[in-house]
Design a protein that fits this description.
mainly alpha, 12 helices, 47% helix, elongated, 392 residues, three-stranded antiparallel β-sheet
Length: 392
């Protein structure tokens, strides 16, 4: 005990007696007088020596002790080391415990990487492929160039993730985005990178049960990826298109437009607190609208239907699901009347929250070369001969 301690004048027996009487509940003022102690009543226990234990610190092998708390405390102090900062509890942040946690975390990550690698090897093929750029469909070509531009090269063989990109890859309509990437995987051009961060995979009982398309990286299966992509871009920029590409691009234009409309429909419903209407009815409506209206005009019709549904919900006090479903009918009636009476649907601007995607840029700016006319004009019908499609 330090000589500066107000208890330094006490013998070992007196100190033990003081501690015993304190915890038996005697008044502190009386104890200070009896033992000739000069300190405040509230600070007495701060000068008590810690309670020894028979344990040793697992890091420095010094004796473990238990600090003494004021008797008003309803719980005991936690055991700690008399020399280092270690405490005997799971929350201890001493250097020894932090090192153990780091090593355990590193071990878990290593085990996860092994499981991810094994899952990838069992799920996808990584053998080199000898496919030529001209053998790709237009849909696969657009998707590949978009993936390269949005994910970016990490090295000569791998690409980054969609999550880290500065622009959205495709409309946030999971089936459409997944179908694009899945086609590339099935064709044999790319595969999910087995070295992707384990956060891209969902584990259940130490087994991989799902993967996130936005968090995973991508590895090329062709011998010279940079040359393959450059050759593909050269074909796109030339007049040496495969004959099927023009119609395939128009097919993809409709597919992309429908995905954009579905995304905007869900956005419009959510803005009013409505759930997403039935998928079958929604798909049938959007297919109907795109026959005669641009995506911009479809947005306007959908937004107007959302307002009508919100008003209907307020007037009739119907459920939000009924209100959401009423958007379908309101939009269809508005579109039918616009056709019948020759209304001019002004169109809705692209929404700030739903920016134009990389797929749209590559398809309409690079392949078809009509830019944002794809948004404001009615899509062309199949059968055109010039791949630089004009939109009116």
């Amino acid at each position: 005990m330090s000589l500066s301690s107000p208890l330094s004048h006490l013998s070992a027996e007196e100190l033990s007696d003081l501690i015993r009487r304190y915890y038996e509940g005697e008044k502190v003022a009386a104890l200070l007088v009896d033992f000739n102690i000069r300190c405040s009543m509230s600070s007495l226990t701060r000068h008590f020596p810690p309670q020894p234990t028979d344990l040793l610190c697992k890091y420095c092998q010094s004796p473990l002790i238990r600090p003494r708390y004021p008797r008003q405390r309803t719980y005991e102090a936690e055991i700690c080391c008399s020399v280092c900062d270690h405490q005997e509890n799971p929350r201890c942040s001493c250097p020894g415990c932090e090192k153990v946690r780091r090593e355990a975390h590193a071990g878990r990550l290593a085990a996860e990487r092994v499981r991810v690698f094994e899952f990838c090897q069992k799920t996808w093929d990584y053998e080199p492929t000898d496919i030529e750029p001209v053998e790709l469909s237009a849909r696969e070509a657009v998707t590949l160039i978009s993936l390269v531009r949005v994910a970016g090269w990490l090295d000569g063989q791998t690409l980054g993730t969609l999550k880290a990109a500065s622009i959205r890859f495709a409309p946030a309509e999971s089936d459409f985005q997944l179908s694009l990437i899945q086609a590339l995987i099935e064709t044999g051009i790319v595969a999910p990178d087995p070295k992707s961060h384990s956060s891209a995979f969902r584990m259940d009982n130490s087994a991989v049960v799902a993967w996130d398309i936005n968090l995973i990286g991508w590895v090329f299966r062709c011998a010279d990826p940079a040359y393959f992509v450059q050759s593909l871009e050269d074909i796109v920029a030339s007049d040496r298109w495969p004959e099927r590409w023009t119609d395939e691009c128009i097919d993809l234009s409709y597919e992309l437009a429908a995905a954009e409309c579905r995304e905007f429909f869900e956005y419009s419903a959510a803005k009013r607190g409505f759930p997403t209407p039935g998928v079958t009815a929604q798909n049938a409506l959007i297919k109907n609208l795109l026959r005669d209206f641009s995506v911009s005009q479809c947005y306007q019709l959908i937004w107007t239907a959302g307002k009508a549904a919100a008003d209907y919900h307020a007037r009739k006090r119907i459920s939000v699901q009924q209100a959401a479903n009423s958007m379908i009918g309101a939009c269809q009636r508005h579109a039918d009347r616009a056709r019948a009476e020759g209304w001019l649907i002004k169109g809705h601007a692209r929404n700030f929250d739903l920016e134009r995607t990389q797929i749209s840029h590559v398809l309409h700016d690079f392949f078809l070369q009509h830019g944002e006319a794809c948004f404001t004009s009615v899509l062309p019908k199949l059968g055109g001969s010039n791949h630089h499609t004009n939109l009116s």
